[in-house]
Structure prediction request, 373 residues.
Amino acid sequence: MKIFEKNSLLNLCATSLLLTVIFLHPIPVGSQTMTIEEYEPKSTLKVPEHIVKKAKYPFIDVHNHQPLNPKPEDLAKMVGDMDALNMAVMVNLSGTSGDKLAGAVKNYKGNYPTRFITFANLDFTGIDDPGYGERAAKQLEQDVKNGAQGLKFFKNWGLTVTDKNGKRIPTDDPRLDPVFEKCAELGIPVLIHTGEPRSFFDPQDRFNERWLELKQFPDRARPADKYPSWETVMGEQHHLFEKHPKTKFIAAHLGWLGGDLTSLGKLLDRLPNVYTEIAAVVAELGRQPRFAREFFIKYQDRIMFGKDTWAPEEYYTYFRIFETDDEYFDYFRKRHAFWKMYGLNLPDEVLKKLYYKNALKVIPGIDKKAFPK
Prediction:
């Protein structure tokens, strides 16, 4: 009995000593030294998969950004990549205005008359001067004569654009009312990116779903001591939509409501002049396949396809989410989605509206011959 007690005491001492050594001098195994950025687990789940590299129907990408005057060989390569994806038309939202826009339209349409659409952008220089809105509207009218088929607002409007006193100019500022009225008169849509994901405005703590992205890109954070709240920025956008019921608006990135489709649905119900698109937010849809599918069916006449960045292989994930019922597959960028994706398997008619029918209805001047009825 005494021998047993003595051995037990020795074992206890040895264990304590070992634990002390481990805590003071951790064994350098991978699980103790890797960072969250390095952690890339390989799923062992075996389920059916369908990699889709070409869209089922020709589609229109209503949200992309391209240089004004690409080299002929770069443009030819891009068109080849578009053909491989089944992309019939790309909308370049970075058209600027004036002579630059006119030159860009000439370059793109001169080489590929039906494949590219260019949206104009406003120049906010002189916004404090009397009559700015009327002058901007007149310039936009000239841009449309020069080939622009829509107007794009970048996220600086309503967030970082300031007046001469350094005061932020709200999205629904009345100085731009003549511009939106001109858009209605000309029959062109306004694709507007207002704000950022809600999480960018939240505290950057362990509860923040976009913590990894904010760690990798600290300048994307929108702290309350430097920026207005997410609710303020988005509220101004929605008020802008209300003020101009005759103008067609396309709320970029699902209006940053991809994670709250119920609220997005209420917005669409209330404002029939508002459409939306899916650029850079399909990770939100792929984690809620049943509810998102119901949403896309209910609002099938109001949603368009968009991507935002030009990376042909990333479109495969978009196609897979919308065209298949695959489950538990990776998104292509961990900082946007550390969770897995699931396919929505949209009905064909809904898919056609997402891919091209809604864009044909909203954006004027697109050649319809490339699309099925």
